[in-house]
Amino acid sequence: MRRAYIIGTMALGLAFAAVHGSPAYGRVASSARSFRHYFHDLQGADSTLNPVERFVFSLMLANTKPPPQR
Q: What phi and psi values does residue 64 have, to the nearest 5 degrees?
């Protein structure tokens, strides 16, 4: 039984390390930070937006790509 727990823990750790190191994880983490930033900025900037509107606008802003630099 103890051996199964050790193997399970090791497998979980390896799976977490594989997901954490993937490029997709970095994009998700970056998008989440952008979403949180925009959500809080919209909350402080305009009191007429309800939470659903702030959520939708934050998703839209977080998924936009910056213009290419020249």
A: -80, 150
- The answer to whether 39 and 55 are in contact (CB under 8 A) is yes
Give the C-alpha separation, 55 to 38, whole Å. Answer: 9
Name the residue among 22, 62, 25, 66 with its Cα closest to residue 40: 62
| Residues whose CB is less than 8 angstroms from the CB of residue 54 and which lie 6 or more positions away in sequence, other chains included | 39, 42, 43
- Model pTM score: 0.56
Helix axes 23-45, 51-62, angle to 10 degrees: 140
Judge whether residue 20 has pLDDT over 70. no
Residues contacting residue 3 through CB under 8 Å, at least 6 positions apart: none
Residue 42: its H or E element: helix 23-45
